[in-house]
Specification:
By secondary structure, this protein is mainly α. 67% of the residues lie in helices and 0% in strands. The longest helix is centred in the middle third of the chain and has 42 residues. Helix 3 packs parallel to helix 11, helix 5 packs parallel to helix 9 and helix 9 packs antiparallel against helix 10. The chain contains 12 helices and no strands.
């Protein structure tokens, strides 16, 4: 188990270093590979031995080797956090006897969610490059590693959330065709159903919310109200979630994220009400959604776990 956790932490720290680049560059429209990493204060090009996750920051004393100005502690902290998250995911997959290929999809999803949460919190946007690439990756994983989908590897275990698509998956697997074809088709169908459900649920909320806000603005003549009840990026984020974790996750995680977002909105609105201009606050959804989403890949269907806890 220690070896599994160590491998997970190492991979997470490496990916965490890359995510630091994603969070900094993507919102600014910069390339992820050009120019090479540099010190944001003096422009010093970071050499390979200065770019080792966590360790380089420690050995450099948290300072640039050229200008000697401080390097934010957020960089190694982010790398360590992703390392811990990846280690927990790897340990869960190993302990529960899931196919090791499951780790790949869950690692990708966890990295994408952390990036979206940080970008949305700091910039109020959810970049298409993260959500679209996540949907494509989820579909590819489904075809290449079909049993990385818990709908196939653990179809009747409610802890993994495959109740909505289980009849479809079983029907496809029952069709007279080579097993390699049927399992890949079933896995891809599970992926696409989750993606479509995520897009549909928030797509409807986006449309109805926009209509409600338009009617409210017209009735109350409040021009400061936003035109959209939620961002289009939120729709794509939920579609990406369904693509990786299945249709059941869309229902449970949206409920959990909405409850956390509602609590956060109340706090922000209370703070905004103290301002003289009474500005309308818009709440970034991704940070609140990321909490139940990451708990899902670390613990499982936590709604089901809570139900079992209180029913015993």
């Amino acid at each position: 188990m220690f070896v599994i956790a160590a491998i997970g932490f190492f991979m997470g720290a490496v990916i965490g270093s890359f995510l630091n680049v994603v969070v900094w560059r993507v919102p600014r429209g910069m390339s992820l590979n050009r120019p090479p990493s540099t010190c944001p204060k003096c422009g010093h090009r970071i050499r390979p031995w200065e770019n080792i996750p966590i360790l380089s920051w420690i050995f450099l004393g948290g300072r640039c080797s050229k200008c000697h100005l401080p390097i934010s502690w957020k960089y190694p902290a982010g790398e360590a956090a992703v390392g811990l998250l990846y280690a927990l995911i790897a340990m869960r997959v190993w302990q529960e006897g899931l196919p090791l290929s499951t780790v790949l999809g869950w690692w990708w999803f966890a990295g994408a969610m952390l990036s979206l949460a940080r970008i949305d919190f700091e910039h109020g946007i959810i970049p298409n490059v993260v959500t679209y690439s996540g949907m494509i990756a989820a579909a590819l994983f489904s075809v290449v590693f079909p049993y990385s989908r818990t709908a196939l590897s653990a179809p009747r275990n409610p802890n993994y959330g495959a109740l909505l698509t289980r009849p479809l998956v079983e029907a496809i697997q029952g069709i007279a065709m080579p097993e390699k074809v049927s399992c890949r088709l079933a896995a891809l169908s599970d992926c696409l159903c989750g993606m479509l459900l995520g897009a549909l649920v928030l797509g409807v909320a986006y449309y109805l919310g926009g209509k409600a806000l338009a009617a409210w603005r017209k009735r109350r003549q409040q021009a400061e109200l936003p035109e959209e009840a939620l961002g289009k990026g939120d729709i794509k984020m939920l579609a990406m979630t369904g693509a990786f974790l299945g249709a059941d996750s869309v229902v449970f995680l949206l409920a959990g994220g909405t409850l956390l977002g509602f609590a956060g909105a109340l706090l922000l609105l209370a703070k905004a009400s103290q301002r003289k201009d009474g500005a309308f606050s818009q709440v970034p959804f991704a940070p609140f959604f990321a909490v139940p989403a990451l708990l899902w890949v670390v613990l499982g269907n936590w709604f089901y776990l809570l139900f079992r806890l209180f029913s015993e």
